[in-house]
Amino acid sequence: MQIPSPYLAITNRLASMGVKPKYITDLDSATTALRATAKFLHGKELRSGGFAPSLVGAITDAVSYLPKELGKNLSTRSGWISASSPNVLNDVRAETMSQWVVNQYPQRRYPAAVIGSSNGAAVHLCAALDIPWLPQTLLVSLRHPVDPDEPKQELEWAKAPAQQLLAKNPDLCVYQMHDPNQDRLKVPRVTYFRLKRTRLGTQFQQFLQQNLEPGATLFLLECQYSWLSTRVSDRHVFQFGGKGKLAPDDYFQHSQQIANFLQQNGSRHRYWEPPTPDGRLPESEWGFEGALRDDVEQFARQHGYRIRRIVFDFPQDLSPLVADLYRWWYRERGLESDRLLVESFVYLQPWWALRLGLVPFWTVFNDRMSAERLNNYLDTAKPYDEIYMTLFSNGLQALGQASLDEWRSILNRARTRGQFIGVNEQTYPGDLASYTRHYTHLKKLNGRYPMPEPLTLQQLDNFLAQAGDRYPVDWIDQYCQVN
Question: What pLDDT is recorded for position 1?
Fold first, then answer.
């Protein structure tokens, strides 16, 4: 039996003060969404690049102009540096992570809270309603060198560390993701464990009891997105590949496009041989693990809260609804509603969207499917006069990635003005500085509006009643306790 290191006590203490446990990965969809939401509830912007975004942007911009292979190597090494030693798994605790989460938020009364899937559009929904989001999933990255095209070796190594973590955390599942396509620059040195909660736990329960109004609403955010995966053990799932234009089945095919991709990236392989999948399970990054629902429902019954499930199939399904909600809200406030901000992956700025009077539309990634679904929205929406677009830069040309020309064609749909925000077209997709530049350039746009009073739950219901079944999102009243 291993004895927890002194680091465990220190981490617990720091988490109670709002300091992130080192083993939680910083630049991740869930962590960024949490910070963006929490900063907004504090009345602050999310400063991408910390306290010196211009300096950070200048340094990363210089790196983007290095020879391509050198830039890729630096990106791989940076992933290794930001990851944790596998030894840290002895100190990972679900309640410590939850304590850090709840300490991001102001302690005050809220009419509702969101619990569940990671989702950029949901950040803007929380901002509109001025309510917190408690993530089901957080990412732990572990240092481990591996041939990115040998997924069976990766899984074999991960079995023991996963069980070590799970033995000390009965409320967690490990969803291990290995994507040698879109994450190719990181996975040669990093193993991804996405940890999904199956129960609220003490910290989340205490936060909700102390901060929710009597009879408040608990929104369960349930993205039903799934992936072909292998169930390794009761609470350990291995997922090969990740959300993009490539479908789950494509990763298991011996296709010419995969052979060409591997050859272009200097691999000795011409196809992948991942572990045999058992079926479709919740997708590691975006999918909802349904075991949490039962615990939330029981908690709601005990304390007289209302449950509303927000259920949708694909992560970006929520984006058209939230965009049109903002458009409707702006019109209700007597503002123009014809300026669209397209956000990409972790580039989230809810405070600036409202300050600038922009309609937010979140895209999951820089892949072709995300672009297609944005186009589908614009096909049916009232035309926008202005479209501004951020674009996540992942360092390489992955299979299924949309080209700059494809993204430009979307900007061209604006009636008067369409432009990228923070994108260096010469270095994309190796444009590492876009992470900070999207923030510094966004602030330079014209137009400033006073921050509004929060949207009420009744206003949300009014919008949903007018919308009818226009969106592929179900709002299900699961439980309502009358005291």
Answer: 43
